[in-house]
Write a structure and sequence with these properties.
183 residues; six-stranded mixed beta sheet; 17 strands
C-alpha cells in the first residue's frame, strides 16, 4: 500500500500575469482530495475542497494540501501577482523587455508550431511562443493579447509564454500576397 501522498501542483504555476487566470490544483496520487486556502492559513480537511478552477484577478497566495485515507501531503503554495502591460498598437517601437498588450487585433499570415507571422495596420510581426491556440491563415486574433518585445536576429519579435491571453479567432479575411522587387 502507498504510505505517501503527492503534494498538489498548480496550473498555471505562480508568477506575474497580465490578465486574470483560472488556477487548477491536482495531486498525482490516485484518489487524493485537494484542499486549499487563499487567506494565508494552513490548509486542512476543513478547508475548501478543490472542485473547479479558482478565478484569480488580484494578488493572491493559494496554499494547498492533498489527503487520502488520513495521509497528508506536504503543504505547497503559489503566489499570483499582476503587472501592467504597456498598451500598444505597434510593438516595434517599444524597448526590448517591455511587456506589451495589443489594443488592436492582428491577422494571421502563417503558424507553424510556436512560430506565427501576423500583420496589422502598422506592419508585420513574428510571434514566438505558446499561444494556447491554433490559427489558420486569415484568422483575426482579437485585441488584448500580451507578450514581451524582444529583438531576435536583428528583427523585432513578440515573445509569449503561458498563453498570455490569446483568444480564439474572431472571423477571418483573405490574405493576398504582396509582390516585392528584390535587388
Amino acid at each position: 500500500s502507498q504510505t505517501t501522498v503527492s503534494a498538489p501542483v498548480f496550473t498555471p504555476k505562480g508568477g506575474t500575469y497580465y490578465a486574470p487566470v483560472n488556477v487548477s490544483i491536482a495531486s498525482s496520487s490516485t484518489g487524493a482530495s485537494v484542499y486549499y486556502t487563499t487567506d494565508g492559513t494552513e490548509p486542512s480537511e476543513a478547508s475548501t475542497l478543490f472542485t473547479t478552477p479558482i478565478a484569480v484577478s488580484s494578488e493572491t497566495t493559494i496554499k494547498a494540501i492533498a489527503m487520502r485515507n488520513g495521509i497528508k501531503s506536504n503543504v505547497v503554495s503559489a503566489t499570483y501577482t499582476f503587472g501592467t502591460a504597456t498598451k500598444v498598437a505597434a510593438y516595434q517601437k517599444v524597448a526590448d523587455s517591455t511587456k506589451v498588450a495589443f489594443e488592436g487585433g492582428v491577422t494571421v499570415l502563417a503558424q507553424s508550431g510556436k512560430t506565427m507571422y501576423v500583420k496589422d495596420n502598422s506592419g508585420y510581426m513574428l510571434v514566438f511562443g505558446a499561444t494556447g491556440q491554433t490559427y489558420k491563415q486569415g484568422d483575426k486574433i482579437p485585441a488584448g493579447f500580451t507578450g514581451t518585445k524582444v529583438t531576435y536576429n536583428c528583427e523585432p519579435e513578440l515573445s509569449v509564454y503561458d498563453t498570455d491571453n490569446f483568444k480564439a479567432a474572431e472571423g477571418s479575411e483573405t490574405v493576398t500576397p504582396e509582390t516585392v522587387q528584390a535587388s
